[in-house]
Amino acid sequence: MPKAVKFILGVFFLVSFLILCRSLFLNLYPDFSQYYFGAKAINPYLNGVIYPPLALIIFHILSLLPFYVIEKVWAVLSLLALLASVFLIFRLYKKQLFSSLGLLVLGLVCLSFPVKFTLGMGQINNFILLIFVAAIYFFNKKNYLSSFLLSLSFAVKLFPAFILIQFIVMKKWKFLFTFVIFLVLLSVFAFIPIGTKVNLYFYQHFLITLLTGWKTDYYNQALTGFIGRSFVHNFFSVTLVNLLSIFFILVSCLVVFKSRKNKQLVNMSFGLLITLNLIVNNFSWQHHFVFLIFPFLATLFYVLKMKNNRKWLLALFVSYALVSINLVNPHAVPILLQSHVLYGAILLWILEVYFIWKDSVPLRLGFPVKVRR
């Protein structure tokens, strides 16, 4: 029976993977073409590029090769980065990737729309996912390569910013110091090949546009997208976004702080902060939710250790389904249903908050007290 189940799950993964591989045969990857041709402009930030200067170095290198060749290479490498990310997460939890569980997870990953969207658009997300997953992996191994990788993630994508909260509450000052040093060095390095003018333009004029402004498109599944589609943009809607964002941030900080003594919850806390990032960003396009792969798996491995876990597995699957589906014609459904990805992310956030809070070590008079189970 176990062999039959593994065979069925193997077929499920293979079919899902082949469906995903159709992205490798597209005629155009819109976002990648923007990277490729935008990097050749005198000022890429006036030609649609939205990434920090260090990313421009990567795009410049790519633009030295023929477009029709490098776009396919980029797509294949992006797919490999996705698979490598899942492999690293399984290795972090000492799980076999090509087990029945691994095949099921790989199949579900391949079917997820944010994953398909990332590949189909030629997005950089899978590479960023691999970088910060590797950073978390090496942090667990107490390797300072972790701080460099996290700084690289920030220098290229400015993501995931809230993950620094975990290092602060754990008082990992050496880690934070090396992170800042690496980030500064990478940012300064970008001045050499990119030039002062473009770098200063990014920091003086363009960066603020990434931190402000709302996008009401269906593909923006952050809190701002939900509020922007549901209400007129005025003082009330802005205040509502700010209040809800403050709520999510404060609760997350409280939970992470409460769990700081429990090393078993560190990765769950990382996942919580990554989920938080996507919820409260000024905009989180659907392809950005590929970053939820780490929080989903961290939560899944936690739930699998529990007894009578069927209701939690069901809740986690509902969260996955809400995040993973796509509405071909979103305007044909009520506005409230257009934020299904946000609802899935919030459900995942609630599960993470509940599990971390439940298993955190309570404090009395500043001294940890063991919880009886």
Summarize the structure in short.
The protein has 373 residues and is an all-alpha fold.
Average residue-wise pLDDT: 93
Major sheet size, sense and barrel closure: 2 strands, antiparallel
- Care to count the β-strands? 2
The helix/strand class is mainly alpha
Stretches where pLDDT is under 50 for at least 5 consecutive residues are 363-373
Strand content: under 5%
How far from one another are the termini?
A: 34 Å
For the record, the count of structural domains works out to 2
Describe this structure in words.
- With 373 residues, the protein is mainly alpha-helical.
- The chain has 2 domains: 1-212, no CATH class; 214-361, no CATH class.
- The chain has helices at residues 2-21, 30-38, 53-62, 67-92, 100-111, 113-121, 125-140, 145-157, 164-169, 173-189, 191-194, 196-211, 223-230, 235-258, 266-280, 293-304, 310-324, 340-359, and strands at 363-364, 367-368.
- Strand 1 (363-364) and strand 2 form a beta hairpin.
- Mean pLDDT is 93; it is low at 363-373.
List the defining traits of the structure above.
373 residues; mainly alpha; 2 domains; 18 helices; 68% helix; 1% strand; globular
Spell out the blueprint of helices and strands.
Elements: H1 2-21, H2 30-38, H3 53-62, H4 67-92, H5 100-111, H6 113-121, H7 125-140, H8 145-157, H9 164-169, H10 173-189, H11 191-194, H12 196-211, H13 223-230, H14 235-258, H15 266-280, H16 293-304, H17 310-324, H18 340-359, E1 363-364, E2 367-368
Helix pairs in contact: 1-5, 4-7, 4-16, 7-8, 8-10, 13-14, 14-15, 15-16, 15-18, 16-17, 16-18, 17-18
